[in-house]
Amino acid sequence: MERISTLILVDDDTQRRVAISDALTSYDLRVEPFEHVCQLADAWPRSGVILIHDGPCAINRLIEAMARQSQWFPMVAFSEKPEVQRVVQAVLNGAIDYLVWPASAEELAQTVNSAIERATGAGSAKLREVMARARVDRLTRRERQVLGAVAGGLSNRLIGEKLSISPRTVEIHRANMLHKLGASHTSDAIRIAIEASLTH
């Protein structure tokens, strides 16, 4: 596999972008700076690892953009004095590491290189998960419940009993759910549910 040598930097603070770019000039990493995720979406890169400032909704926007592009990049989040819960949330959302800013050039390079090593081979699985979650997000609450019950192996009658609706209503929700997921068969829907970590 070709070595990733591009750092895609997403940060709305000009001074930080300059500081990070300058800090990494002596390392074998080319920095492509972007102010916002929408800028990145307009000039989608072919490869790289993303270093993103963990601002409000930034990681969620990046994940949505990657799902739209059907391409997953290893992602490292960073912010100043992050609370533990913020770090945990970023990792749950797909970040493979979290950096506390300010950081030295050596720390930056180590973190990015470590992210590259850990992400090799994990990209396609993560992409499938992101794509599946993006599909599941289109469903209504009731359609999600039906999907979860279908993935759990329940019949329309049992799903109806569980949700206190008629089997005919279950059929309607099930048909809508399959359509929104782009699934031809129930087995496709179950695979999507598993990839989205909706079931185990």
From TrEMBL:
Any one Pfam family match given in the protein's UniProt record, by short name: GerE
Ranges where the Response regulatory domain occurs: 6-116
PROSITE patterns linked: HTH_LUXR_1, HTH_LUXR_2, RESPONSE_REGULATORY
Keywords: DNA-binding, Transcription, Transcription regulation
Domain of life where this protein originates: Bacteria
Annotated HTH luxR-type domain residues: 132-197
SUPFAM superfamilies: C-terminal effector domain of the bipartite response regulators, CheY-like
Matching PANTHER family: DNA-BINDING TRANSCRIPTIONAL ACTIVATOR DEVR_DOSR
Protein's name according to its UniProt entry: LuxR C-terminal-related transcriptional regulator
Native species: Novosphingobium album
Organism taxonomic ancestry: Bacteria, Pseudomonadati, Pseudomonadota, Alphaproteobacteria, Sphingomonadales
